[in-house]
Design a protein that fits this description.
Blueprint lengths: L1 E5 L4 H13 L4 E3 L10 H13 L5 E6 L3 H7 L7 E3 L3 H9 L5 E5 L5 H13 L6 H11 L1
Parallel strand pairs: 1-2, 1-3, 3-5, 4-5
Bound molecules: D-ribose.
């Protein structure tokens, strides 16, 4: 199960991504927001972050205008490694090296075509499991 959430700046892109996940046959849980009315991104970062941290969802996707504010809020939560990606190279690397569990996107930064490729790269790339990467991830948690 993939948790997904956004603020008003990410709402349109969230709808595109949900359609894409459904087309791929992937289950997702939509934590809002549900319109383009102005709202506060930390609320949705927390809802998605909690779902990932408590194991209800394996991974999360968070979208605001830039991806930045919502990633800062998500990264305050224990066990969350949220990465803003604007390209597929970073999406692949953050899974392989950082075992990122939340992908953050900017609805005002990337178009839907690129965003969907970034989502697919993130979801389809496993963590390398290399000792040096595990050591570094553990250092972040300390
Ligand atoms: C909302 O206008 C905007 O500040 C928000 O979506 C996000 O980009 C914050 O980092």
């Amino acid at each position: 199960m993939i948790a997904i959430g956004c603020d008003h700046g990410g709402f349109a892109l969230k709808e595109e991504i949900i359609k894409h996940l459904e087309n791929r046959g992937l289950d997702c849980k939509d934590f809002g927001c549900y319109s383009e009315e102005s709202c506060d991104y930390p609320i949705y970062a927390r809802l998605v972050g909690q779902a990932v941290a408590n194991g209800e969802c394996e991974q999360g996707i968070l979208i605001c205008g830039t991806g930045l504010g919502i990633s800062m809020a998500a990264n305050k939560m224990e066990g969350i490694r949220a990465a803003v990606c604007t390209d597929c190279f970073c999406a692949e690397a953050t899974r392989q090296h950082n075992d990122a569990n939340i992908l953050c996107l900017g609805g005002r930064v990337v178009g839907p075509g690129l965003a969907i490729k970034i989502v697919d790269t993130f979801l389809d790339t496993p963590f390398s499991g290399d000792e040096r990467h595990l050591r570094r991830i553990n250092l972040i948690e300390q």
